[in-house]
């Protein structure tokens, strides 16, 4: 083999070796980049799932939200604590008449006395049962009536003025009639609470249904969707906030209906305790019943608020 051939062969070998090295180098670089990209992606995913810090801005935002919620809760508790303390101090120093306004200590004594008699939870249970039943039946019945009226617009237009009149009518005016028709018992109280809830639910839910964008309904009609499908996939999801608002209103109205009914006909329940306490001049019992009513109504409202958060979260 000549010298020229040897030189040419060595150059060729060096070139092939260089190309081979470049090939493996590029391959390693690509593998490296792929690994880093996958690693960063996993960091982001794991960070979002496990609650790790993603960015300083996000961390600051989360801290601000948590701090705001804590301040709200602390402020609420402080306002209640200050009110109770001032009430007790004013009654103790006779700045106010304890006989007329009672005091936290006297309310607690009345609570303990009624508890020891074994009647406290019986009265609370009866009132809660009447309220929950009236609230539930009124809300369900009102929602069903709203669906029927939405499905038949002609019927809705006919009944619209009557719904307005029923909503404006003081329900106290109907209570004696309902008691006369149904009887002097728990059924009359539940019906009063139901009637108060049902009218509000019908108006609120029907208004929510009618506020849905008509173009979306027309779009579903072009795909020949049935009314059931439109209700299920369009009307119901978009009306969740309206329905929850109706629930929040009904919580308070149901308590009003039940207590009003217990004022008139009941022989048990917190409304009965309020009336009885007023008749025998035991205002400590009256204030105790009002405090218990306030606490239970607050708990019911918080339950509805919790359901609202869950529904909105599932919707999102």
TrEMBL record:
Cell location: Cell membrane
Q: Where is the ABC transmembrane type-1 domain?
A: 124-304
Q: Where do the TM regions start and end?
A: 73-96, 132-155, 162-182, 188-209, 230-249, 288-307
Enumerate composition-biased segments (Basic and acidic residues): 1-21
How does the entry describe its membrane topology?
Multi-pass membrane protein
Per the UniProt entry, what is one GO biological process?
Answer: transmembrane transport
InterPro entries registered for this protein in UniProt: MetI-like, MetI-like_sf
- Matching Gene3D superfamilies, A to Z? MetI-like (1.10.3720.10)
Region listing for Disordered, in residue ranges = 1-23
Query: According to its UniProt record, what is one Pfam family this protein matches?
Result: BPD_transp_1
Entry-linked SUPFAM superfamilies: MetI-like
Keyword entries, A-Z: Cell membrane, Membrane, Transmembrane, Transmembrane helix, Transport
Its cellular-component GO annotations read: plasma membrane
Assign the protein's first listed, main location to one coarse class: membrane
> Family assignment?
Belongs to the binding-protein-dependent transport system permease family.
* Protein name (Swiss-Prot/TrEMBL): Putative aliphatic sulfonates transport permease protein SsuC
State the organism named in the record.
Answer: Clostridium puniceum
Which taxonomic lineage does the organism of this UniProt entry have? Bacteria, Bacillati, Bacillota, Clostridia, Eubacteriales
Q: Which gene encodes it?
A: ssuC_1
